[in-house]
Amino acid sequence: MRILITGGAGYIGSHAVRLFLERGHDVWVYDNLSLGHRAAVPADRLIVADLAETQRLDHALVEHRIEAVVHYAAFSLVGESVSHPAKYYQNNLVNTLSLLDVMRRHRIDRFVFSSTCATYGIPDKVPIAEDEKQRPINPYGNAKLAVEHALADYAAAYKLGYAALRYFNAAGAAPDGSIGEDHDPESHLIPIVIQAALGQRPAVEVYGTDYPTPDGTCIRDYIHVDDLAEAHLLALQKLEPGTPFKLNLGTGRGQSVREVIRTVEEVSGKKVPVKEGPRRAGDPPALVAAAEKGQQALGWQPRYTDLSRTVETAWNWHHRHPKGYDD
Predict the structure, then answer these.
(1) Rounded Cα gap, residues 145 and 169, in angstroms
(2) How far is Cα 102 from Cα 84, in angstroms, rounded to an integer?
(3) Please, are residues 122 and 137 in contact by the beta-carbon 8 Å criterion?
(4) Which value, in Å, is the radius of gyration of the alpha carbons in the chain?
(5) What letter would DSSP give residue 92?
(6) pLDDT digits over 170-211, tens only?
(7) Strand, helix or coil for residue 257
(8) In whole angstroms, what is the distance from residue 91 CA to residue 94 CA?
(9) What phi, psi does 248 have (nearest 5°)?
(10) What CA dihedral angle connects 27, 323, 256 and 278, to 10 degrees?
(11) What span, in angstroms and rounded, lies between the C-alpha atoms of 183 and 190?
(12) Residue in 112, 229, 218, 122 with CA at minimum distance from that of residue 170
């Protein structure tokens, strides 16, 4: 299949690019490199451009005879979305609608969308099933949910076949340590803990120790980035015009902040300095996927179900690349 992957030089996108190429697909990466890294993808597959540049996007779809689009390009910092909502609505919503319009002009009717569990807000029940009410509590989640609504309307009106994949906490890196996670600033817990273990930050800040969880800290569902990539490929292969998928991607198991810290210590053999503080506003006590529907619909089973294996891959990447891609 001839596939355009937007945001393909980013963390999750670059792992998908590698997997799709390994499986024999003709993949092109469309990324403005504001968050992505040139070194994360093959140079001869990279188109450096912005989604707002619709003429360049139009040209890419025609030149490479694209048949399907996998859309990772987005801003994803929840706190920043609260401070700068216009940035998030413009990039995550408006630019996505522009992408869909360009696709329609070229009759491309297969689309896999990188959605998020942030569309659920603070859930009534955990584990979170796909029929849980979607009540985002920040502009990031609101923009992603608005795209989901648009996709449903596009499917009904234009016979778009799409998958909206709501994933939980992406984690880990390529097992060989060649590509991995490199954000500035870093907002994900596992790399933050690893950075503290490596002495790259003074301590890990634990926000809240009085949650109604076994050890008082927040619980999250950590899904390996390669498992996410596999699910995206399976979803793409199952798409039919006018047929939607709205699925959670997670392991169905949750680990607390303290468990993540302990696992990093066990894997690295290093003590992690910790600083405890008050809760952050809007942090739910637990976010864990009810993952059965996604696994059944896609015929997909996460390979990384043990947190230590996921942390091992992340440690290999950060230990070998203490400055990330250094670009």
Answers:
(1) 17
(2) 27
(3) yes
(4) 19
(5) I
(6) 999 999 999 999 999 999 999 999 999 999 999 999 999 999
(7) helix
(8) 6
(9) -80, 145
(10) -120
(11) 12
(12) 229
Angle between helix axes 257-268 and 307-320 (nearest 10 degrees) is 60
**Is-catalytic flag, 140?**
yes
Please, which residues have CB within 8 angstroms of residue 26's CB and are 6 or more apart in sequence?
Answer: 1, 2, 3, 64
Relative orientation angle of helices 139-158 and 95-105, to the nearest 10 degrees: 20
Residue type for position 297: A
Task: State which H helix or E strand residue 224 sits in.
Answer: strand 222-224
The identity of residue 262, as a single letter, is R
Count the neighbouring beta carbons within 10 Å of the beta carbon of residue 202: 9
Tokens 């929840």 locate to: 78
Could you write out the three-class secondary structure of 42-79?
CHHHEEECCCCCHHHHHHHHHHCCCCEEEECCCCCCHH
pLDDT tens for each residue of the chain, 327 residues long = 999 999 999 999 999 999 999 999 999 999 999 999 999 999 999 999 999 999 999 999 999 999 999 999 999 999 899 999 999 999 999 999 999 999 999 999 999 999 999 999 999 999 999 999 999 999 999 999 999 999 999 999 999 999 999 999 999 999 999 999 999 999 999 999 999 999 999 999 999 999 999 999 999 999 999 999 999 999 999 999 888 999 999 999 999 999 999 999 999 999 999 999 999 887 889 999 999 999 999 999 999 999 999 999 999 999 999 999 998
The H-assigned helical ranges of 120-206 are: 139-158, 189-197
The catalytic residue among 140, 162, 167, 222 is 140
The two tokens of residue 154 are 């596009």
**Residue 160 contacts residue 102 (beta carbons within 8 Å):** no
